[in-house]
Write a structure and sequence with these properties.
By secondary structure, the chain is an all-alpha fold. The chain folds into two domains: about 50 residues, no CATH class; about 70 residues, no CATH class. About 65% of the residues lie in helices and about 0% in strands. It has eight helices and no strands. About 15% of the residues are buried.
Length: about 120
């Protein structure tokens, strides 16, 4: 698979990976080995970042679109994410509230469809 695909599946920011990872295709066996026995660079990237936007959004409990609305367009480190969580700017407070409403609505809709359609559980 392409390095960008592997990075996405591993939840890491491709430009922060070693050059060897960025420049060569990754076989399924190599990918499985990276997942089973991550090298130090992968462990360090997962721990401290920089993290790709989907991972930043997950850690901040907002959508990727919410990040963009808040002006976050680049990867962030774990320290930067922690700083945002400790002293959240107004955009983050608003986006987290929006995300909570969206999830509650999705839960309500899914709950309703299961109540009226027993096959939805199958």
């Amino acid at each position: 698979m392409k390095p960008a695909t592997a990075a996405k599946k591993l939840g890491i920011y491709l430009p922060a990976t070693p050059a060897g990872f960025q420049e060569s295709a990754i076989s399924r066996a190599e990918f499985n080995e990276l997942q089973a026995n991550p090298p130090e660079w992968l462990t360090e990237l997962r721990r401290n970042g920089p993290h790709p936007r989907p991972e930043v959004a997950r850690k901040l409990n907002v959508s990727v679109s919410g990040l963009a609305r808040g002006g976050v367009t680049e990867a962030l480190t774990t320290a930067e994410i922690t700083a945002l969580l400790e002293n959240p700017p107004q955009w983050l407070v608003e986006e987290r509230a929006t995300q909570a409403k969206v999830r509650a609505e999705a839960k309500r809709i899914n709950g309703d469809s299961k109540a009226t359609n027993p096959k939805a559980d199958a």
